[in-house]
Amino acid sequence: MAKLTKKQKEALSKVEKGRIYNLEEGSALVKEVNTAKFDASVDIAVRLGVDPRKANQMVRGVVSLPHGTGKDVKVLALVTPDKEAEAKEAGADYVGLDEYLQKIKEGWTDVDVIVTMPAVMGKLGPLGRVLGPRGLMPNPKSGTVTMEIGKAVTEVKAGKIDFKVDKYGIIHAGIGKVSFDAIKIKENAQELIQTLIKMKPTAAKGTYVKSIYLSSTMSPGIAIDTKSAN
């Protein structure tokens, strides 16, 4: 096990063992226990009472965080020439089609989100092996396959994120930076949690939101009272 630094020990001591914090306390504490020398991401892990192996218990969707993620999201718009101006105006970092399809084929994936049109999806199919594992394949459910290219780019840039429950029933998401005010972290977390609650599958039985943890890059996890996020 790696030896903890003095700073890491100090951070760990601030998180009371066995204590469950309300969301307001946790959002302030996650800023205090950060030990990274850079503006670390604030992450949330929500464990749900679902069985993701069953199609009727899969939880997947999108949420627009009120204060964004704090991250400069690099967007590639794969569009036909008539949509290029719209994508550029909305702030897409890369705009085009065949030349970028070729670059992806050659292994280039230096983007965070790809936005495209229904007519282009057929060309993206063969690139699934490159894009799929990196979570870059556009999807109509996440709003990244649409004719409203400008709107899609603007929303992604403003803090729209997509999420999907993993095989252990946990949703992981980045909801800000430690430089954010505690209230902004709290409101972003609340927005995600409330979105998840609205999406509860009818087939899910028992406790739906089982646990919530907040953490930042390299910080200890902070247990959050699930009721405080409602």
Describe the structure.
Part of the 50S ribosomal subunit. It is a single chain. This protein folds into 2 domains: 20-69 and 160-229, 2-Layer Sandwich (Ribulose 1,5 Bisphosphate Carboxylase/Oxygenase); 75-157, 3-Layer(aba) Sandwich (Rossmann fold), CATH 3.40.50.790. Helices cover 31% and strands 21% of the residues. The chain is built from 8 helices and 9 strands. The protein has helices spanning 6-14, 23-32, 81-90, 98-105, 121-124, 128-131, 149-158, 182-198; strands at 41-48, 60-64, 75-78, 94-96, 113-116, 160-164, 170-177, 209-216, 222-224. The strands form 3 sheets. It has a 4-stranded antiparallel β-sheet with strand order 7-1-8-9. Strands 4-3-5 form a 3-stranded parallel β-sheet, with helices on both faces. The chain has a two-stranded antiparallel sheet with strand order 2-6. The model has no long low-confidence stretch (mean pLDDT 91).
Q: Unreliable segments (pLDDT under 50, ≥5 consecutive)? A: none
Quick one: how many beta strands?
Answer: 9
* Radius of gyration from the alpha-carbon trace, in angstroms: 19 Å
Q: SSE string, helix = H, strand = E?
A: HHEEEHEHEHHHEEHEE
Instruction: Supply the CATH architecture of the largest domain.
Output: 2-Layer Sandwich
Might you state the CATH topology name of the largest domain? Ribulose 1,5 Bisphosphate Carboxylase/Oxygenase
The profile of the biggest β sheet is: 4 strands, antiparallel
- Spatial strand arrangement across the major sheet: 7-1-8-9
User: Which secondary-structure class do the elements indicate?
Assistant: alpha/beta
CATH superfamily of the largest domain: Ribosomal protein L1/L10, rRNA-binding domain
Sheet-strand content, in percent, reads 15-25%
Q: What is the overall pLDDT average?
A: 91
The level-1 CATH class of the largest domain: Alpha Beta
Residues in helix, %: 25-40%
Helical stretch tally: 8
First-last Cα distance: 37 Å
Total count of domains: 2
GO molecular function, one term: tRNA binding
Subunit structure: Part of the 50S ribosomal subunit.
Keywords: Repressor, Ribonucleoprotein, Ribosomal protein, RNA-binding, rRNA-binding, Translation regulation, tRNA-binding
InterPro entries: Ribosom_uL1_bac-type, Ribosomal_uL1, Ribosomal_uL1-like, Ribosomal_uL1/biogenesis, Ribosomal_uL1_3-a/b-sand, Ribosomal_uL1_CS
